[in-house]
Structure formats: structure tokens, C-alpha cells
Amino acid sequence: MKKYLIKVSLFIALCFVIVTFTMLKYGENIDYFYNKFTTPQAKSMIIGDSRGMQGVMPSIINKKLAGSDFELPMFNYSFTIAQAPIGELYNESILKKLDKNVTNGVFIISMTPWMLASEKENDNHKGEYREAGEPPHNIRFVNMNPNYEYLLKNLNYFHFQALFRKSSTMHKDGWLELNNLPKSPEVFNKWKNTQSEIFDRMIDDYKISEVRLESLDVLVKKLKAHGEVYLVRMPIDLDFLEKENGYYPSFDKDLQVIADNNDILYFNFNPVTDAIDFKTYDGHHLDKTGSAVFTNLLCDSILKYNNQLLQNASILR
């Protein structure tokens, strides 16, 4: 019995060492979220769903805003719509990840109608949330490397076969880079049709949540104590935009009200103009090229606004 226990213990220890080595060296390729919980607390943050996770690049923001007074580096703490719609759970995790000593960070909140929606059977007033039990909400330690808590609680998110394909890379700054992008119009249309069907199901199954809208206002107020906050609606294809506007007609108005009440800006990059080519790979997720174009434009918008503030302040002196 003693020998058996020793063998089992050695086997478990060996597995533990192998998994630890694999996550330290290849975690960026086998899990979309792992790196987000192995990095230090963030000074500036991108918040949102998968559009923000793939479409806003911290590396570009760090370069473009390097000459400003913002406290950098930027970190992308976005997830997917299944894990992190706006709400008290996401708010709590964001504040865990935030460096509380920051006073002049920059916080970009990428908003979609689905970020404010809940499944019809869930009563948010009673604390019923579809994202409960999912990362990042089931993680207490969000800046530990290696992060064994994440490993134990979210092993189902690991795709070890992806180590060989390397179809995606979760960068240390939280930006998700997809590498297996459509190589033909036929594949693009197939992916787009799949996403359109997902939109249709969400339209049937989800309702807009006043609780989530109130949570957005709470989040903006808390982040404002640590720097500048910007609400952003990222560019998507017109047919997807029409679906979203039909589902939530007052979306832009509601975001503008929150922006006005908190004295912040709401950047709406829709509808897309022909002058700027925001390339998506499925109609509403920007590909790597589109992400770079969009992030540069977003930085230019932020810098332009802040330069205007400085000019106005100098005139008043």
C-alpha cells in the first residue's frame, strides 16, 4: 500500500510539473484567458467582449500614447460575451486587476448591446447571471504566475492540441491574435453566416438588463477615480449593425446619457465609411489588419480630444 501511494504521489507530481511547464511556456497558445491572470495589476485597461479582446491592441496604444501623461502600459482585460458582460461580477474582477495607486490611467470600455443583455430566464435583480462560475469571476488571484487556481478551476478551457496548430496567441498584454483567418470569400461568408445565426439566437433568448446598464454607470464612476474613461462602439459590418440597432434601438442614446452624466466621451465608429477599411474576418470581429487600423484611429481620437482640452485650458488662463 505504501509503495502504491508513493507511485501515485510521484505520478501526480510528474503531471503537475509537466502541466506547469506547458502553461509557462505555451499557455498563450492553448488557452484564450490564462495569460490575463498571470500578469501584474494593470495601470490602464481595455474592457469588453471578444470584439475588444481581438480588436483593440495594447501595443499600439502604448506607442501612440507614450508622449501623453497617461499611466501605461495598457492591458486588455476583455473576454467573450459568455464570460464577461457588464455587471457586478465583471466590475469586481476589473477592480481586482486594477492597480489602485493609479490616478491617470486610460480606460477603454468596448460596448455592444450584448454586453448589456441577459438571458430571459435570469433575474439580474436577484443576482442571477449567466456568467457566474466562469472566468474571470471564479478567480480570486488575477495576477499570479503560474496561476494554479485558474488551472484547477478552468481546465476545460485548455486546448492542448492547439499547441501544435498555434491557431491563436493570447499575448502577455491581453490581446488575442487569431492566426487561422479565412483565406477565401467562401470561408468568410460561411463564418459570417454562422455569426449571424448566433446573433439571431441571442435576439430570441436575451433581454436588455437595466441592472447591467446601472452597473456600467457604477463602473465608469469607479474607474474615473483612477483616470480617463472612454466608451467605445467598435466598427462592424452594416448588416450586423442593423441587427443590433433593431434589437436595442436606444443603445447609442443610453450610452451617450451615461457618458454625459459622467463627463466622459462616447466614441461611436458606426456606420463604417468607405474611406476607412476596417477588415473583419466574420462581419463583426476585426482581423489583425483591421485591429491595427482601428486602434490607431481610436488613439488619434483620444489624443485629439485631450489636445482640445489643453488648448481650452490655456485660453482660460
Description:
Helix content is 47%, strand content 11%. The protein has 11 helices and 9 strands. The protein has helices spanning 2-30, 50-55, 58-64, 88-97, 148-153, 162-165, 185-205, 210-224, 238-247, 251-261, 288-316; strands spanning 44-47, 74-76, 105-110, 117-119, 168-170, 176-178, 206-208, 227-233, 265-268. A hairpin with a 5-residue loop joins strand 5 (168-170) and strand 6. Helix 3 runs parallel beside helix 11. The termini are far apart. The model has no long low-confidence stretch (mean pLDDT 87).
Would you count the extended β strands for me?
9
Which strand-content bin applies to the residues?
5-15%
Taking all Cα atoms into account, the compactness measure Rg is 21 Å
Looking at how many chains there are and whether they match, the oligomeric state comes to single chain
Label the structural class: alpha/beta
List the helices and strands and how they pair.
Layout: H1 2-30, E1 44-47, H2 50-55, H3 58-64, E2 74-76, H4 88-97, E3 105-110, E4 117-119, H5 148-153, H6 162-165, E5 168-170, E6 176-178, H7 185-205, E7 206-208, H8 210-224, E8 227-233, H9 238-247, H10 251-261, E9 265-268, H11 288-316
Parallel strand pairs: 1-2, 1-3, 3-8, 8-9
Antiparallel strand pairs: 4-7, 5-6
Helix pairs in contact: 3-11, 7-9
Quick overview of this protein structure:
The chain has helices at about 1-30, 50-55, 60-65, 90-95, 150-155, 160-165, 185-205, 210-225, 240-245, 250-260, 290-315; strands spanning about 45, 75, 105-110, 115-120, 170, 175-180, 205-210, 225-235, 265-270. The chain has about 325 residues and is α/β, with parallel strands linked by helices. The strands form 3 sheets. It has a 5-stranded parallel beta sheet with strand order 2-1-3-8-9, with helices on both faces. Strands 4-7 form a two-stranded antiparallel ribbon. A two-stranded antiparallel sheet has the order 5-6.
